């Protein structure tokens, strides 16, 4: 299997040409056009002139856009953090589950992918809305308690679970959790079990072993989990659109409105590319941290 | 060796589902011993060691350390430390941090930790390696780190799981003597699991041979070799010629086993068995001599047994295979009936190896005290 592309050029070219064609024509070229738009100006309803202006980028610095960028980063960051905190124990549990249970648990993690994101989001609405399943259960419990307490609790007020920042973060965690669990699981599963046993053997308890051995060794998995959760969360559109309230717009929602309702493609393009640049910075930072880690190890 | 038992297995069994890994093992190990658990893979020796470390709980029975029942004590609370087969050196810590890890978990202060870790590194000849990362070390050095890391905690017992299996042959030999001298220096009881009988014989003061979860024999290396108690042990330790037969005569001063393959085998001692039962006579290859075939069977062959013409056993055969190994030559001699008898002859002079040729007619002989009679 130690073949390089040099030894089998024809095969290499055959294999690469279809995906390369796809990438160039359906990804790089459209992306390039949008990039050019970001330096353009509207001329009439549908015409855009490429004038090389920076005004679209300058406009992005006006209120409220920096605030919305900041809010998007904040929501994506909180989502990523929650995914990590919830996902790590789950990944750990799957790693140490018996072999038979393992594949079923992994299936359970991936099961949501079998349903369209839109349907899953609507399902969440059914769960979270005022007459939703959570409030129904809460109402029932409230009534039961109230009966026992002789009406001391007063009138029932449903929990406000939908159309606010809570529901956006809840939805994003729900959607992105598998992306955190899978890389964590693959790192943890590859870890040499005797390292954990050695730690226990040397007198460490389970919690101590977790923080001294498991977490440091799962570093690469944690980094990639953070990255592939944070990036899609940062650009999420559907979840804030359907679950969010009037003030939970994220940057992707603004971009959408620029392309559609505002019909300001150049500005939408500039906002899109600011998002791309931010993502690049994120990836570059991760690469830098990884290299530093490797440098220390070598 | 003091009489104080440090480890005691009492009727310990371990079952994984339907498989019985360890079957009713009772065993005591004494302070200061270099004890070896020996057996083929899957015989339960590693499970026994892991139960001692606390990674497995016995299904039945009790494990005592210093007289205290630790059967259910978690590994981090047992006074034993382990050197893992894969060494399990933490890759994200320096050598010094690895060695100091156990002390840190015990709450030893930073400066004492450092001193003791340095001292332990010196003990395994790794002084000055403290700042390195494990991936800058060779396999042998990583093993020394694992040793230092376990020894620095001054355990009552050090457990070694196949400690030499991952090393290359030359390093393995060096490490053998180093481990034994290290054990003598620190005076800690060592328990080593190995499938390599040479390793066990060379290093251990006492060995337990296991097969299919059962303890077969517990004895010193020389007793295991010279006085095996079963065909399994005789065959597993070293190489052996086995003759199946019926115990025909059993007197206090001699016995005769009538074998199907080599005729009657004469023994100069009694056997603890009932006449008429099936027994096995086992002879080590180096205890068999080979002689040029003359007209008559040799009458005065060494070793001589004065008062009985049957004092030695002589069988006619033909040299079928020869393997010259430098210090010795291994022969296989075919006797009537087709059985091959293994003979090892030391090459005492520089002309020895020219003594016999392939296809040559020879006599093979062994003294009446050489065969071990095995009842099972």
Automatic annotation (TrEMBL), chain A:
Residues 69-286 form the ABC transmembrane type-1 domain. SUPFAM superfamilies: MetI-like. One of its GO terms (cellular component) is plasma membrane. It is a multi-pass membrane protein. Pfam families: BPD_transp_1 (PF00528). InterPro entries: MetI-like, MetI-like_sf. It is found in: Cell membrane. GO terms for biological process: transmembrane transport. The chain crosses the membrane at residues 12-37, 73-97, 104-128, 166-188, 209-234, 267-289. It comes from the Bacteria. Keywords: Cell membrane, Membrane, Transmembrane, Transmembrane helix, Transport. Belongs to the binding-protein-dependent transport system permease family. CysTW subfamily. This is Spermidine/putrescine ABC transporter permease. It comes from Asticcacaulis benevestitus DSM 16100 = ATCC BAA-896. The lineage of its organism: Bacteria, Pseudomonadati, Pseudomonadota, Alphaproteobacteria, Caulobacterales.
UniProtKB/TrEMBL annotation, chain B:
It is an enzyme of class 7 (translocase). One of its GO terms (cellular component) is ATP-binding cassette (ABC) transporter complex. Coiled coil: none annotated. The gene is potG. Its EC number is 7.6.2.11. It comes from Asticcacaulis benevestitus DSM 16100 = ATCC BAA-896. It catalyses: ATP + H2O + polyamine-[polyamine-binding protein]Side 1 = ADP + phosphate + polyamineSide 2 + [polyamine-binding protein]Side 1. It comes from the Bacteria. Residues 7-237 form the ABC transporter domain. The complex is composed of two ATP-binding proteins (PotA), two transmembrane proteins (PotB and PotC) and a solute-binding protein (PotD). The keyword Cell membrane applies. SUPFAM superfamilies: MOP-like, P-loop containing nucleoside triphosphate hydrolases. GO terms for biological process: putrescine transport. Signal peptide: none annotated. Keywords: ATP-binding, Cell inner membrane, Cell membrane, Membrane, Nucleotide-binding, Translocase, Transport. This is Spermidine/putrescine import ATP-binding protein PotA. InterPro entries: AAA+_ATPase, ABC_SmlMolc_Importer, ABC_transporter-like_ATP-bd, ABC_transporter-like_CS, Mo/tungstate-bd_C_term_dom, P-loop_NTPase, PotA-like, Transp-assoc_OB_typ2. The lineage of its organism: Bacteria, Pseudomonadati, Pseudomonadota, Alphaproteobacteria, Caulobacterales. GO terms for molecular function: ABC-type polyamine transporter activity; ATP binding; ATP hydrolysis activity.
């Amino acid at each position: 299997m130690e073949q390089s592309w040099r030894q089998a050029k024809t095969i290499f070219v055959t294999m690469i040409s279809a995906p390369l064609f796809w990438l160039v024509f359906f990804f790089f070229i459209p992306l390039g056009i949008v990039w050019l738009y970001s330096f353009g100006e509207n001329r009439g309803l549908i015409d855009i002139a490429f004038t090389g202006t920076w005004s679209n980028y300058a406009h992005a610095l006006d209120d409220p856009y920096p605030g919305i960028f900041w809010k998007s980063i904040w929501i994506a960051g909180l989502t990523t953090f929650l995914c990590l905190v919830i996902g790590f124990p789950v990944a750990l549990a799957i790693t140490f589950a018996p072999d038979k249970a393992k594949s079923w648990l992994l299936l359970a993690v991936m099961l949501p992918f079998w349903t369209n994101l839109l349907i899953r989001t609507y399902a969440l609405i059914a769960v979270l809305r005022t007459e939703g399943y959570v409030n129904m259960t809460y109402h029932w419990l409230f009534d039961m308690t109230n009966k026992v307490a002789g009406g001391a609790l007063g009138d029932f007020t449903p929990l406000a679970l939908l159309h606010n920042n809570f529901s956006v973060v809840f939805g994003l965690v729900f959607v992105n959790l598998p992306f955190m669990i899978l890389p964590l699981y693959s790192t943890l599963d590859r870890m040499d079990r005797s390292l954990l046993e050695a730690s226990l053997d040397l007198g460490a308890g389970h919690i101590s072993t977790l923080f001294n051995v498991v977490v440091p060794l799962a570093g690469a998995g944690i980094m990639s989990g953070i990255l592939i959760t944070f990036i899609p969360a940062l650009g999420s559109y559907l979840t804030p659109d359907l679950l969010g309230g009037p003030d939970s717009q994220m940057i992707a929602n603004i971009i959408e409105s620029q392309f559609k309702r505002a019909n300001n493609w150049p500005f939408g393009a500039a906002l899109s590319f600011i998002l791309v640049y931010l993502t690049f910075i994120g990836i570059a930072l991760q690469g830098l941290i990884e290299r530093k880690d490797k440098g220390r190890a070598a | 060796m003091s009489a104080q038992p440090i480890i005691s297995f009492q009727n310990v069994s371990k079952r994984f589902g339907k498989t019985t890994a360890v079957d009713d093992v009772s065993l005591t190990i004494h302070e200061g011993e270099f004890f070896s658990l020996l057996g083929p893979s899957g015989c339960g020796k590693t499970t026994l060691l892991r139960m001692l470390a606390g990674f497995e709980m016995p299904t039945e029975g009790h494990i005592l350390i210093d007289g205290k029942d630790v059967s259910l004590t978690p590994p981090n609370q047992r006074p034993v430390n382990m050197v893992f087969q894969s060494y399990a050196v933490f890759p994200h810590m320096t050598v010094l941090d690895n060695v100091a890890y156990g002390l840190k978990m015990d709450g030893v202060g930073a400066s004492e930790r450092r001193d003791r870790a340095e001292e332990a590194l010196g003990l395994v000849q790794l002084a000055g390696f403290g700042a390195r990362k494990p991936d800058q070390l060779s396999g042998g050095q990583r093993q020394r780190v694992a040793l230092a890391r376990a020894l620095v905690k001054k355990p009552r017992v050090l457990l070694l799981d196949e400690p030499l299996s991952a090393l290359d042959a030359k390093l393995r030999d060096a490490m053998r003597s180093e481990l034994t001298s290290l054990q003598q220096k620190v005076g800690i009881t060592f328990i080593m699991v190995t499938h390599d009988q040479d390793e066990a014989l060379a290093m251990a003061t006492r060995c337990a041979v296991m097969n299919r979860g059962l303890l077969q024999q517990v004895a010193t290396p020389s007793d295991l070799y010279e006085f095996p108690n079963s065909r399994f042990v005789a065959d597993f330790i070293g190489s052996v010629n086995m003759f199946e037969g019926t115990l025909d005569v059993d007197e206090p001063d001699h016995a005769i086993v009538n074998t199907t393959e080599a005729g009657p085998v004469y023994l100069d001692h009694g056997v603890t068995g009932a006449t008429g039962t099936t027994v096995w006579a086992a002879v080590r290859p180096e205890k068999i001599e080979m002689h040029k075939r003359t007209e008559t069977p040799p009458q005065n062959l060494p070793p001589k047994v004065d008062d009985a013409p049957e004092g030695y056993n002589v069988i006619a055969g033909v040299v079928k295979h020869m393997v010259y190994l430098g210090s010795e030559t291994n022969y296989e001699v075919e006797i009537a009936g087709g059985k091959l008898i293994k003979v090892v002859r030391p090459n005492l002079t520089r002309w020895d190896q020219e003594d016999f040729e392939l296809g040559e007619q020879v006599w093979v002989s062994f003294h009446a005290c050489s065969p071990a009679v095995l009842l099972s």
